[in-house]
Design a protein that fits this description.
about 280 residues, alpha+beta, five-stranded antiparallel beta sheet, 8 helices, globular
Length: about 280
């Protein structure tokens, strides 16, 4: 059965975005046109500038997803976020610049063979100068740093990091799979359909991810920063650095090192009260 592509009917409140502040936050200085070239530059700038982090979920603090709150937290205070925050901010920027933008949800699999909740947010985008649809996955924490054409077998190689899309026809809806290449070959990272999602759907997903006792995001800190040449991950106290060739180094950090590591490596400057709670 043929998949139905999203239709671009969602609203992302682009008219409420301080676009100058957002583009400054990600260091984007290119043309503000809804072209494929601009989309590629925006995705790379966003992915390599805004870290992934779940500090407020661990601390049990509110995680509002309205655009004013996202701009205050991520743009003005220069903090990171998880997928819902990343996607809603980028969607507003893309809409403001004239792109056709739709939200979708995915299930993170990481080669596990298990079905997980559809709690990963992504975007499908179309520019004004290209008829193709592009998957933009800026909220995973580890790339890709450029859009992936929404086509069976489409691949990207960005700075040595390789990704591939696979389409598996189904009886009710086609399933799409994003694979990442590593030392052991291709591994599925997540699966998704093209059923459109809207901001309210992400509010529901975020509520589960940020508050449910079974969610890993409320149990320990996760932080990621993707520079293109390196992928830094912090899982509780384990700091791992991965490179495009698959090589990696890991070390355990002491509670007294947490604030410095987050600031210097992950570009996340914690407030004193946040650091005190996390290291108590």
């Amino acid at each position: 059965m043929t998949s139905h592509l999203p239709t671009g009917t969602g609203t992302w409140h682009g008219d409420e975005l301080d676009v100058d502040a957002y583009l400054g936050r990600i260091g984007f200085t290119g043309e503000r046109t809804a072209t494929l070239a601009t989309l590629r530059r925006l995705v790379r700038a966003h992915t390599t500038s805004i870290p992934f982090e779940n500090v407020h979920a661990v601390l049990g603090r509110p995680l509002p997803l309205d655009l004013a709150s996202l701009q205050e937290r991520i743009v003005r205070r220069r903090r990171g976020g998880y997928c819902f925050e990343h996607v809603l901010l980028l969607a507003a920027a893309l809409e403001r610049l004239g792109f056709e933008v739709d939200g979708i949800s995915g299930r993170v699999t990481l080669g596990s063979g298990r079905w997980t909740p559809a709690t990963h947010a992504m975007l499908v985008v179309r520019s004004t100068d290209d008829d193709r649809h592009w998957l933009c996955d800026v909220g995973f924490g580890g790339g890709p740093t450029e859009p992936v054409e929404l086509a069976d077998g489409a691949e990207v190689d960005a700075d040595g990091w390789r990704f591939r899309l696979e389409r598996r026809p189904g009886t009710l809806v086609d399933a799409w799979w994003l694979h990442q290449h590593g030392p052991d070959g291709w591994t599925d990272r997540h699966t998704f359909s093209l059923a459109p999602r809207y901001p309210i759907d992400y509010v529901m997903g975020s509520h589960y991810v940020g508050t449910h006792p079974r969610s890993p995001f409320v149990k320990r800190i996760f932080a990621q920063r993707f520079t293109g040449t390196e992928h830094h991950q912090l899982d509780a106290t384990t700091w791992t650095t991965i490179r495009p060739d698959g090589s990696r180094t890991s070390k355990e950090i002491a509670p007294s090192e947490l604030g410095q590591v987050l600031k210097e490596t992950f570009d996340i400057a914690l407030e004193p009260d946040e650091l005190a709670q996390l290291t108590a």
